[in-house]
Design brief:
Blueprint (H helix, E strand, L loop, with lengths): L9 E6 L4 H8 L6 E6 L9 H11 L3 E4 L13 H22 L2 E7 L22 H16 L3 E6 L2 E2 L6 H11 L2 E5 L3 E2 L2 E2 H11 L6 E4 L6 E2 H12 L4 E5 L19 H5 L8 H11 L2
Parallel strand pairs: 1-2, 1-3, 3-4, 4-5, 5-10, 6-9, 7-12
Antiparallel strand pairs: 8-11
Helix pairs in contact: 1-6, 2-3, 3-4, 5-7, 7-9
Length: 289
């Protein structure tokens, strides 16, 4: 753990505070010894290098959790320059400013850096091979962090949902109440990740010196179809969920068929793994009542 001055809280800047994960971090109950400085896009435009330096000078944080990103997966296919401007160049600006100021940097990345053709969980040092503009731009951000900073955490996650913003769980709950039946893709496998659990892990992580690449998702594996079934079962919705293939729902950006990630870095650094995905879903649904 970091050595702190007596009575001095850890100051953690969170970028992208208007997004799902950033909002979760911003809204977590105040932990003793931690001060969260939540910055939305209007507070910090990471594509402006001068603003990155000015904002970090103003707040003097001990660590940054960089949740801010261009996340419109399909739109990125027709806006590659914008995706790379935010996810690549913007992350580089933040990494350069953080390094110069001696501030730790935690960059939130994605399962999309892999091609999804695997059959066993991806570990942190498996070969990356993104197939989408979004995935390539997030990998560019990883490269920027690794080359511009020497005290970094890169945390790849997948299938994120939570209390804030739009996500698959909210969509299913809405559609399940409006329809008697619906189709959900059954040939994509991954691990849903609850922002509440991920946020707590990130806060724990950035207070350590255990730098490197991490895969963080709730444990266990399911398809989107199985995830939808669980959402309906746990919430008491009677709608029927029929399986379908990815090919039946073509989209501009191809989705990884296999997004399951191994949590070897979490285990080897003695962190507590995130709880099973179904248990996390139960917590989310209960908390949303």
């Amino acid at each position: 753990m970091i050595t702190q001055q007596p009575g001095k809280p850890q100051r953690i800047v969170v970028t992208g505070a208007g997004g799902q994960l950033g909002a979760e971090l911003a809204q977590l109950p105040k932990a003793e010894g931690i001060e969260i400085i939540a910055l939305s896009r209007s507070d910090l435009d990471v594509t402006d290098s001068e603003q990155c330096r000015a904002v970090l000078t103003k707040h003097c944080p001990d660590a940054i959790i960089h949740c801010g990103a261009y996340t419109a997966v399909d739109k990125a296919e027709s806006e590659p320059d914008e995706a790379f401007r935010v996810n690549g160049a913007g992350t580089r600006n933040l990494a350069v400013a953080a390094s110069a100021a001696g501030i730790k940097l935690c960059y939130i990345s994605t399962d999309y850096v892999f091609d999804g053709t695997g059959a066993v969980p991806y570990n942190e040092y498996d070969h990356t091979n993104p197939q989408t503009v979004y995935g390539k731009s997030k990998l560019a951000g990883e490269y920027a962090v690794q080359t511009m900073h020497n005290r970094f955490f890169i945390v790849r996650t997948s299938w994120v949902y939570g209390k804030y913003g739009n996500n698959f769980v909210k969509t299913m709950l809405k559609m399940g109440k409006e329809r008697d039946s619906l189709k959900v893709v059954s040939d994509q496998l991954g691990s849903p990740t609850y922002t509440y659990d991920l946020a707590h892990f990130l806060l724990e992580l950035v207070q350590t010196e255990n730098y490197g690449i991490y895969h963080a998702s709730n444990t266990g594996t399911c398809s989107w179809h199985e995830f939808a079934q669980a959402i309906f079962e746990e919430s008491g919705i009677k709608a029927q969920v029929d399986p379908c293939t990815t090919d039946e729902f073509p989209r501009p950006a191809p989705r990884p068929a296999y997004s399951v990630m191994d949590h070897s870095a979490i285990r080897s650094n003695d962190f507590q793994p995130l709880r099973p995905w179904r248990e996390a879903l139960q917590h989310y649904l209960k908390d949303s009542e």
